[in-house]
User: Fold this.
Amino acid sequence: MSLGPPGGQLPAEQADNFEDIEKQFAVKAVQHMSTYWGILEKMRGSQLRLTKLDDDIHEHLKRDFPEFDPQETVKEDEMKSKTGKERWRSFMMAYEKKIDDYNFGTLLRANPKWEYGKEETIFVPRMQFYAVEIARNRAGLNDWIYEKEHEKGNSNDS
Assistant:
């Protein structure tokens, strides 16, 4: 989406507004991240459904990205390479009319063993987040978050 004329610069008088829009996107992405983490602390990821289409999304991911291993660190360079972008765009467009905000910017942990952090997080479209996190949840790779939270709760009781 461009806020300026095609091929042109953003007019200076609109720059502040553009910065406000960017800040609003960032706030929404952080809110989504916090909400998701909070859910994982309260419920095992392996028992969680992120969308009504989790089964379809997971099967589609396995079909279109057979090399994807949910245990491995997501290689941002590969994902955002020319070929990677083309493959993911094709994948995501299947959900354009099915998933709200399918292309909204979302924060993804690069590795399921890590918590969110500046160096451990990738900014991706929501469908990439769903695809990766559904695969991780199905494999039980996010259950440690729930277990860690409840272990902490139990140690506070004694």
